[in-house]
Protein backbone atom coordinates (compact mmCIF):
# COMPACT_ATOMS: atom_id res chain seq x y z
CA UNK A 1 0.00 0.00 0.00
CA UNK A 2 1.43 3.37 -0.99
CA UNK A 3 2.04 5.83 1.80
CA UNK A 4 -0.17 8.90 1.50
CA UNK A 5 0.80 12.41 2.49
CA UNK A 6 -0.80 14.21 5.39
CA UNK A 7 -2.55 16.65 3.05
CA UNK A 8 -3.93 13.77 0.98
CA UNK A 9 -5.13 12.01 4.14
CA UNK A 10 -6.98 15.09 5.34
CA UNK A 11 -8.39 15.61 1.88
CA UNK A 12 -9.85 12.10 1.94
CA UNK A 13 -11.16 12.50 5.46
CA UNK A 14 -12.83 15.79 4.57
CA UNK A 15 -15.19 13.81 2.40
CA UNK A 16 -16.19 11.58 5.34
CA UNK A 17 -16.25 13.92 8.32
CA UNK A 18 -17.83 17.23 9.05
CA UNK A 19 -14.68 18.59 10.69
CA UNK A 20 -11.14 17.86 11.80
CA UNK A 21 -10.27 16.58 15.25
CA UNK A 22 -7.15 16.97 17.35
CA UNK A 23 -5.65 13.91 19.06
CA UNK A 24 -5.80 13.91 22.88
CA UNK A 25 -2.43 12.35 23.70
CA UNK A 26 -3.25 12.28 27.43
CA UNK A 27 -5.93 9.68 26.68
CA UNK A 28 -3.44 7.15 25.27
CA UNK A 29 -1.92 4.55 27.63
CA UNK A 30 0.12 1.43 27.07
CA UNK A 31 -1.36 -1.61 28.82
CA UNK A 32 1.37 -1.62 31.47
CA UNK A 33 0.90 2.08 32.18
CA UNK A 34 -2.84 1.65 32.71
CA UNK A 35 -2.30 -1.45 34.87
CA UNK A 36 0.17 0.40 37.09
CA UNK A 37 -2.55 2.92 37.89
CA UNK A 38 -5.28 0.30 38.45
CA UNK A 39 -6.56 -0.17 42.04
CA UNK A 40 -6.55 -3.58 43.69
CA UNK A 41 -10.01 -5.12 43.69
CA UNK A 42 -11.31 -6.44 47.02
CA UNK A 43 -14.72 -7.15 48.49
CA UNK A 44 -16.68 -4.44 50.31
CA UNK A 45 -19.14 -5.96 52.81
CA UNK A 46 -22.68 -4.70 52.26
CA UNK A 47 -24.48 -5.59 55.48
CA UNK A 48 -27.05 -7.48 53.39
CA UNK A 49 -27.17 -11.15 54.34
CA UNK A 50 -26.72 -13.43 51.34
CA UNK A 51 -25.37 -10.77 48.95
CA UNK A 52 -21.66 -10.73 49.70
CA UNK A 53 -21.22 -14.41 48.73
CA UNK A 54 -22.50 -13.77 45.20
CA UNK A 55 -19.30 -12.08 43.93
CA UNK A 56 -15.98 -13.79 43.20
CA UNK A 57 -12.63 -13.49 41.41
CA UNK A 58 -11.15 -16.10 39.08
CA UNK A 59 -7.34 -16.38 39.33
CA UNK A 60 -4.63 -18.78 38.24
CA UNK A 61 -2.62 -20.64 40.90
CA UNK A 62 0.04 -23.16 39.88
CA UNK A 63 -1.58 -23.52 36.49
CA UNK A 64 -5.05 -24.13 37.88
CA UNK A 65 -8.00 -21.79 37.60
CA UNK A 66 -9.25 -20.95 41.10
CA UNK A 67 -12.53 -19.27 42.01
CA UNK A 68 -12.23 -17.12 45.14
CA UNK A 69 -15.18 -15.51 46.95
CA UNK A 70 -14.84 -11.75 47.10
CA UNK A 71 -16.83 -11.30 50.33
CA UNK A 72 -18.74 -8.26 49.11
CA UNK A 73 -19.28 -6.03 46.11
CA UNK A 74 -16.06 -5.12 44.26
CA UNK A 75 -14.32 -2.03 45.61
CA UNK A 76 -14.42 1.03 43.29
CA UNK A 77 -17.44 -0.35 41.42
CA UNK A 78 -20.45 1.80 40.54
CA UNK A 79 -23.62 -0.29 40.76
CA UNK A 80 -27.13 0.47 39.64
CA UNK A 81 -29.94 -0.91 41.83
CA UNK A 82 -33.22 -0.91 39.96
CA UNK A 83 -36.74 -2.16 40.50
CA UNK A 84 -40.34 -1.06 40.93
CA UNK A 85 -41.58 0.41 44.21
CA UNK A 86 -41.63 -1.73 47.36
CA UNK A 87 -38.92 -4.14 46.27
CA UNK A 88 -36.30 -3.04 48.83
CA UNK A 89 -33.94 -0.75 46.87
CA UNK A 90 -33.71 2.02 49.46
CA UNK A 91 -33.49 -0.49 52.30
CA UNK A 92 -30.50 -2.12 50.61
CA UNK A 93 -28.53 1.10 50.20
CA UNK A 94 -29.38 2.16 53.76
CA UNK A 95 -28.05 -1.16 55.08
CA UNK A 96 -24.88 -0.63 53.02
CA UNK A 97 -24.42 2.91 54.38
CA UNK A 98 -24.93 1.76 57.97
CA UNK A 99 -22.56 -1.18 57.56
CA UNK A 100 -19.71 0.91 56.17
CA UNK A 101 -20.25 3.73 58.66
CA UNK A 102 -20.20 1.23 61.53
CA UNK A 103 -16.80 0.04 60.26
CA UNK A 104 -15.46 3.58 60.57
CA UNK A 105 -15.74 4.52 56.89
CA UNK A 106 -17.16 7.82 55.65
CA UNK A 107 -20.23 7.53 53.42
CA UNK A 108 -21.80 10.29 51.31
CA UNK A 109 -25.57 9.75 51.04
CA UNK A 110 -27.15 11.94 48.36
CA UNK A 111 -30.88 11.90 48.99
CA UNK A 112 -33.02 13.05 46.06
CA UNK A 113 -36.36 11.64 47.22
CA UNK A 114 -36.79 12.34 50.98
CA UNK A 115 -35.34 15.22 53.05
CA UNK A 116 -32.17 14.42 54.98
CA UNK A 117 -33.82 14.36 58.42
CA UNK A 118 -36.27 11.66 57.31
CA UNK A 119 -33.48 9.60 55.76
CA UNK A 120 -31.53 9.90 59.03
CA UNK A 121 -34.47 8.39 60.93
CA UNK A 122 -34.59 5.51 58.47
CA UNK A 123 -30.83 4.94 58.78
CA UNK A 124 -31.15 4.85 62.57
CA UNK A 125 -33.92 2.24 62.34
CA UNK A 126 -31.83 0.17 59.97
CA UNK A 127 -28.89 0.31 62.41
CA UNK A 128 -31.06 -0.81 65.32
CA UNK A 129 -32.38 -3.74 63.27
CA UNK A 130 -28.78 -4.69 62.50
CA UNK A 131 -27.96 -4.65 66.23
CA UNK A 132 -25.83 -1.50 65.99
CA UNK A 133 -25.86 1.72 68.03
CA UNK A 134 -26.35 4.44 65.40
CA UNK A 135 -25.05 7.20 67.70
CA UNK A 136 -21.62 5.54 67.74
CA UNK A 137 -21.09 6.25 64.02
CA UNK A 138 -23.88 8.62 62.93
CA UNK A 139 -21.44 11.34 61.83
CA UNK A 140 -19.68 8.93 59.49
CA UNK A 141 -22.66 9.38 57.18
CA UNK A 142 -22.64 12.72 55.36
CA UNK A 143 -26.11 13.47 54.02
CA UNK A 144 -26.44 15.73 50.97
CA UNK A 145 -30.05 16.90 50.74
CA UNK A 146 -30.87 17.27 47.04
CA UNK A 147 -34.51 16.51 47.87
CA UNK A 148 -34.90 19.88 49.63
CA UNK A 149 -32.48 21.79 47.39
CA UNK A 150 -33.81 22.30 43.88
CA UNK A 151 -30.44 23.87 43.02
CA UNK A 152 -28.68 20.57 43.66
CA UNK A 153 -31.45 18.42 42.14
CA UNK A 154 -31.70 20.44 38.91
CA UNK A 155 -28.10 21.58 38.49
CA UNK A 156 -25.65 18.69 38.08
CA UNK A 157 -22.47 20.84 38.23
CA UNK A 158 -23.55 22.24 41.62
CA UNK A 159 -24.38 18.74 42.89
CA UNK A 160 -20.99 17.40 41.77
CA UNK A 161 -19.21 20.38 43.34
CA UNK A 162 -21.01 19.71 46.63
CA UNK A 163 -20.21 16.01 46.48
CA UNK A 164 -16.59 16.78 45.60
CA UNK A 165 -16.33 19.03 48.67
CA UNK A 166 -17.80 16.31 50.92
CA UNK A 167 -15.49 13.63 49.52
CA UNK A 168 -12.37 15.70 50.05
CA UNK A 169 -13.40 17.33 53.33
CA UNK A 170 -14.49 14.13 55.09
CA UNK A 171 -12.42 11.47 53.30
CA UNK A 172 -15.46 9.77 51.77
CA UNK A 173 -14.88 6.41 50.06
CA UNK A 174 -18.49 5.35 49.50
CA UNK A 175 -21.28 7.23 47.75
CA UNK A 176 -24.98 6.48 47.54
CA UNK A 177 -27.51 8.32 45.36
CA UNK A 178 -31.17 7.57 46.09
CA UNK A 179 -32.39 7.99 43.52
CA UNK A 180 -30.49 8.93 40.39
CA UNK A 181 -33.85 8.94 38.56
CA UNK A 182 -34.80 12.09 40.48
CA UNK A 183 -31.97 13.93 38.71
CA UNK A 184 -33.63 13.50 35.30
CA UNK A 185 -37.28 12.67 36.01
CA UNK A 186 -38.56 15.64 33.95
CA UNK A 187 -35.88 15.32 31.25
CA UNK A 188 -35.34 11.64 30.58
CA UNK A 189 -33.78 12.36 27.19
CA UNK A 190 -30.78 13.64 29.18
CA UNK A 191 -30.53 10.52 31.36
CA UNK A 192 -27.57 9.04 29.55
CA UNK A 193 -25.52 12.26 29.68
CA UNK A 194 -26.30 12.78 33.37
CA UNK A 195 -25.45 9.21 34.37
CA UNK A 196 -22.25 9.26 32.26
CA UNK A 197 -21.07 12.43 33.97
CA UNK A 198 -21.88 10.99 37.41
CA UNK A 199 -20.09 7.74 36.57
CA UNK A 200 -16.94 9.55 35.40
CA UNK A 201 -16.99 11.73 38.53
CA UNK A 202 -17.31 8.73 40.88
CA UNK A 203 -14.50 6.91 39.08
CA UNK A 204 -12.25 9.98 39.26
CA UNK A 205 -12.64 9.99 43.06
CA UNK A 206 -12.28 6.17 43.37
CA UNK A 207 -15.70 5.81 44.96
CA UNK A 208 -17.55 2.56 45.56
CA UNK A 209 -21.07 3.69 44.73
CA UNK A 210 -24.67 2.52 44.63
CA UNK A 211 -27.15 4.38 42.42
CA UNK A 212 -30.83 3.65 42.96
CA UNK A 213 -33.03 3.98 39.88
CA UNK A 214 -36.75 3.51 39.40
CA UNK A 215 -38.52 1.37 36.85
CA UNK A 216 -41.48 2.63 34.83
CA UNK A 217 -44.67 0.57 34.76
CA UNK A 218 -44.00 -0.63 31.22
CA UNK A 219 -40.59 -2.11 31.99
CA UNK A 220 -40.09 -5.83 32.34
CA UNK A 221 -39.55 -6.57 36.02
CA UNK A 222 -36.34 -8.59 35.82
CA UNK A 223 -34.50 -6.57 33.16
CA UNK A 224 -31.91 -3.89 33.86
CA UNK A 225 -34.07 -1.32 32.11
CA UNK A 226 -35.07 1.66 34.23
CA UNK A 227 -36.30 5.22 33.79
CA UNK A 228 -34.18 6.74 31.06
CA UNK A 229 -34.12 3.44 29.18
CA UNK A 230 -31.04 1.28 29.35
CA UNK A 231 -28.83 4.35 29.87
CA UNK A 232 -27.97 3.61 33.48
CA UNK A 233 -27.30 -0.08 32.96
CA UNK A 234 -25.06 0.50 29.94
CA UNK A 235 -22.82 3.01 31.67
CA UNK A 236 -22.33 1.63 35.18
CA UNK A 237 -20.20 -1.38 36.21
CA UNK A 238 -23.17 -3.60 36.98
CA UNK A 239 -26.85 -3.72 37.87
CA UNK A 240 -28.79 -5.40 40.64
CA UNK A 241 -32.40 -5.98 39.64
CA UNK A 242 -35.16 -6.26 42.25
CA UNK A 243 -38.69 -7.43 41.42
CA UNK A 244 -41.89 -8.66 43.01
CA UNK A 245 -44.65 -10.91 41.72
CA UNK A 246 -48.12 -11.83 42.88
CA UNK A 247 -48.73 -15.57 42.90
CA UNK A 248 -51.89 -15.54 40.80
CA UNK A 249 -51.62 -18.80 38.86
CA UNK A 250 -50.94 -22.48 39.59
CA UNK A 251 -47.84 -22.18 37.36
CA UNK A 252 -46.32 -19.46 39.53
CA UNK A 253 -47.33 -21.32 42.69
CA UNK A 254 -45.43 -24.38 41.47
CA UNK A 255 -42.44 -22.40 40.18
CA UNK A 256 -41.93 -20.41 43.34
CA UNK A 257 -43.31 -23.04 45.75
CA UNK A 258 -45.62 -20.47 47.28
CA UNK A 259 -49.35 -20.35 47.91
CA UNK A 260 -51.81 -18.46 45.72
CA UNK A 261 -52.19 -14.83 46.78
CA UNK A 262 -48.69 -14.49 48.22
CA UNK A 263 -46.12 -11.95 47.03
CA UNK A 264 -42.60 -13.07 46.16
CA UNK A 265 -39.67 -10.70 45.78
CA UNK A 266 -36.80 -11.59 43.47
CA UNK A 267 -33.18 -10.50 43.06
CA UNK A 268 -30.70 -10.89 40.20
CA UNK A 269 -27.26 -9.47 39.39
CA UNK A 270 -27.38 -8.27 35.79
CA UNK A 271 -23.71 -8.10 34.84
CA UNK A 272 -20.58 -6.90 36.60
CA UNK A 273 -17.52 -5.66 34.72
CA UNK A 274 -15.13 -5.88 37.64
CA UNK A 275 -15.45 -9.48 38.87
CA UNK A 276 -17.42 -12.70 38.52
CA UNK A 277 -20.88 -13.02 39.99
CA UNK A 278 -23.73 -15.44 40.56
CA UNK A 279 -26.17 -15.33 37.64
CA UNK A 280 -29.18 -17.04 39.25
CA UNK A 281 -32.42 -15.38 40.22
CA UNK A 282 -32.73 -15.45 44.01
CA UNK A 283 -35.60 -14.94 46.38
CA UNK A 284 -35.36 -11.63 48.24
CA UNK A 285 -37.13 -11.08 51.53
CA UNK A 286 -37.87 -7.93 53.50
CA UNK A 287 -37.96 -8.96 57.15
CA UNK A 288 -40.34 -7.47 59.73
CA UNK A 289 -37.33 -5.54 61.04
CA UNK A 290 -37.05 -3.75 57.69
CA UNK A 291 -33.87 -5.53 56.64
CA UNK A 292 -33.36 -7.04 53.21
CA UNK A 293 -31.88 -10.53 52.88
CA UNK A 294 -30.96 -12.45 49.72
CA UNK A 295 -32.06 -16.06 49.96
CA UNK A 296 -31.78 -19.26 47.91
CA UNK A 297 -32.02 -19.26 44.10
CA UNK A 298 -35.39 -19.93 42.52
CA UNK A 299 -35.66 -23.64 41.86
CA UNK A 300 -32.86 -24.89 44.07
CA UNK A 301 -30.26 -24.45 46.78
CA UNK A 302 -27.09 -22.38 46.37
TrEMBL record:
Span of domain KaiC: 42-302
GO molecular function, one term: ATP binding
InterPro entries membership: Circadian_clock_KaiC-rel (IPR051347), KaiC-like_dom (IPR014774), KaiC_containing (IPR022373), KaiC_dom (IPR010624), P-loop_NTPase (IPR027417)
Tree of life domain: Bacteria
Gene3D superfamilies listed in its UniProt record: P-loop containing nucleotide triphosphate hydrolases (3.40.50.300)
Listed transmembrane segments: none
CDD domains given in the database record: KaiC-like
Name of the protein in its database record: Circadian clock protein KaiC
